[in-house]
Amino acid sequence: MTACPVPYEETDRILLGHGAGGRLTAELLDALVLPALGGPEGPLEDAALLPGHPDLLMSTDSFVVSPLFFPGGDIGSLAVHGTVNDLAMRGAQPVALAATLIIEEGLPTAELRAVLDSFGKAAREAGVPVITGDTKVVGRGAADKLFITTTGIGHRTGGLHPSAAAAHPGDVVLLSGPIGLHGTAVLSTREGLGFEGDIASDSRPLHHLVRALAPIGAHVHTLRDPTRGGVAAALNEIARDSRVAVEIDEAAVPVPAPVAGACEILGLDPLHVANEGCFLACVSATAAESALTELRSLPEGAAAVRIGEVQAAPAGRVVMRTLVGARRMVDMPLGEQLPRIC
Amino acid sequence: MTACPVPYEETDRILLGHGAGGRLTAELLDALVLPALGGPEGPLEDAALLPGHPDLLMSTDSFVVSPLFFPGGDIGSLAVHGTVNDLAMRGAQPVALAATLIIEEGLPTAELRAVLDSFGKAAREAGVPVITGDTKVVGRGAADKLFITTTGIGHRTGGLHPSAAAAHPGDVVLLSGPIGLHGTAVLSTREGLGFEGDIASDSRPLHHLVRALAPIGAHVHTLRDPTRGGVAAALNEIARDSRVAVEIDEAAVPVPAPVAGACEILGLDPLHVANEGCFLACVSATAAESALTELRSLPEGAAAVRIGEVQAAPAGRVVMRTLVGARRMVDMPLGEQLPRIC
């Protein structure tokens, strides 16, 4: 379904790009992980329905961000927000979190304390209890400081049943806030690029913003937070799983000036950069204005905008109308751009 | 409550022993993790009740075992059994698993495939679907090959409501199988000690064996699988959380001859060595014979035995009657003995 299909060739060894959320990740999942584990049928969603419990959803993510602390957050708050948001993208409010720590021997206790305090604060602010966990320590050099895995259970409320496979032709594509902040903040901090004074991660919980859409729940067909692989990967996943085309306006996509500047210098496409505090929504055209009003009623949705629309064909295709009036393909990123961003 | 209390002194840096399941782990949890995360009140159990869903339990564990493959199992099967068993220790049958992978760049694809196939096979054999997951890749040297985090949701059935805090004075202490196999198999393989020809891990799912106890569910007060820290840690946790004393007979504890030999040469106490395929049960004296009959009716419980009893006082004390008729304290292991055993 992609424009330039490249046949999958299994590499002998796992590459960094296999974890970057782009095409290599999708190929690893399709070729290796899902056949072995017997994954669920249908599209890969941000969270999965718990068998026998139609209102409960489960989501899990490992967080390996480097560095542990960055402007706008740290691995602790990120590990809460990331999982809360994956649940929210299925219309669920968080019920409980479980957390595991893999700690490298020698990690300063003060750093661990700061991360745990941040994790606890973020969970309290999101209104979700941490009910169980596990701690492992590995020798020096066997891990890089600290990895956190957070698993969440969420409860689907009201009429919200969004799915990556449910976008309809004619839907309007909304974006809840500006893009590119998380990825550029982490990258700049890690590499000492100097942008980190102007850019802070957008890491934040999005479940309140999703709940604000409940009054028009039946019109909210798809929600997706553009984390690894950015807006480009999220839109390509929606187009693939819903078998639709998506067209967006470059002029409408909010890229903060410092992000645009950083991306230009680094040779990055802002559409490929990870976010941790905004989401894409495909909403019935008739409900689009109501949805924008609801989103803008909360601080985290104040900058919500309409960026494009869903079309019937060609299925799987994402196109951007550029500032100069041309149209260019928005491809699924291959995957090597920004390792350890979340 | 311990015999020789040592005041907690926070170290500047995290030590390997903080992850070994003994006293250092307990101190790290009490001093740092639980205050920050606002952990659940009451004792630390193998799995936690999901708020608002009194029959659902959640458990999470990160698996960092080294090497990835060992006699009797590998990190894939272990990552299923460990989580299934933590749910089983609360009387629950597994409903769903979630799995995350943290992969070191350069891991041979064939090794990843073998581990995933083993994970999938173990899940199918345990009758539990893998419903969601996540894959991260970190650079060379930022992890040691592969870590897996498995989170499970379980459903509590029938009359089984065991808790680490529910052991009663007068209870009989049962052990479902021989001890020391997992820890010595992994250690011997890792260090090339040569015992690995005679010893294989006991890694296996225990939920069928727990279900066999359902007919006498009300009499099953406590179940605990003696993983990190071994039987010594598990009994000390039961004695601490139930505020009872436990006394066991050395002659009754089944230590296979190759395990005993390996422990003697390595200077290990078999009671401190991790297991992944047996559990301790505290059961009403009146139901003890029925429990043993039920356990022995399944292959994984064929060697179930009575090893001791629960007493009223002194609370928190675990004592062993030795082969020569003496009585010695069974202390909580400090924690430095066997890193990366699970």
From TrEMBL, chains A, B:
Signal peptide: none annotated. Residues 169-319 form the PurM-like C-terminal domain. Belongs to the HypE family. This is Hydrogenase expression/formation protein HypE. GO terms for biological process: protein maturation. Residues 45-154 form the PurM-like N-terminal domain. It holds the Pfam family AIRS_C.
